[in-house]
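Researcher: We're teaching a course module on how sequence relates to structure. For the next exercise, students receive a sequence and then see the predicted structure as tokens, so they can try to spot secondary structure elements on their own. Here is the exercise chain.
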Amino acid sequence: MNRRKALFSLGAMAAAGAAATQARTAEMHGYPTDMAMDPDFLPRPALHGGRFHVLSRDIDRRTVTAVFDRLIPADELGASASEAGCVEFLDMQLAGPFGAGASLYRAGPKLPNEDELAQTPQFIETPRERYATGLAALEEYAKRTDGASFADLQPNRQDEILKGMEEGTIDLGNGVHTKAFFELMLINVREGYFSDPIYGGNKDMVGWKMIGFPGARYDYRLYADRTGEDLGLEPVSLIPRD
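Model: And here is the predicted structure for the students to work with:
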């Protein structure tokens, strides 16, 4: 049911309820009381424990941190990606349904040239597997071409490699679709920087404060006609307040 149909249905129910008699109301006895939302559709808080669940190797965390901080570096506008918790956000996402490819169709039949279609939504590997192979390949490439870990390279050299990955002029090999892997990292760091802090990223709502987004507020009706204005509202997260 789309939003328009849902609103229409609610309006029809309200009108019917207003015109109903007491006898009609009595017929509602036994109406189901368990109306809680399906847990699968509720926000999933960040994993706890103070440890990394997927990016458990130091070299993987250092590589992701270096990549993310080149994609969103610290400047006068805001914190870097790692400072905003994007590495933790990624780890928590990879440890959950996203990392397992729960929303991806990965069953057969498989096409003869499926390896060449890795950039399409039907990936052969899960996001968790893609990061495992992609990060290892990126580290191997940096050591082979520059004699050092990617995280230890100068920022301008890191930018050169990332630009080559984005443009498809660099091939990481080892079965990695290099351009698609770059795009995956870019999408994920953006998500971590602007997601609700309940998911581990956007610490202190730095991303929201930077763009002036008021966050997960219950009601915006008072501000609906103030497009383009700085409302001066402090961002609000889905994290419950004590």
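Model: If you want an answer key for the exercise: The two ends are 35 Å apart (CA to CA). Helices lie at 3-19, 22-26, 58-71, 86-94, 127-146, 155-167, 178-194, 206-211.
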